Amino acid sequence: MAYDKFYLGSHGPYLVDPEAAINDPDDDFSGVTQHALTTEGGIAVGYLDLLDTNQSNVLSLVWNENDDTDRTLNILIAGGDRSLTLNENLTISDGYNVVLAAAGQANTFTMNESFTIGDGYAGTITFSAESKTLTVEDVSIINQDLSTDSATAQLAALTLTTSLTVNNPATTTNLRLGTFLSALDEDAEYNYITIGKENATGNALVVGYRYDTTAEDKGGFISVYGDAVGTGLFIRKVDMQDFKRLTLPILLM
Question: Within 10 Å of residue 184's Cβ, how many Cβ atoms?
Answer without folding.
Answer: 15
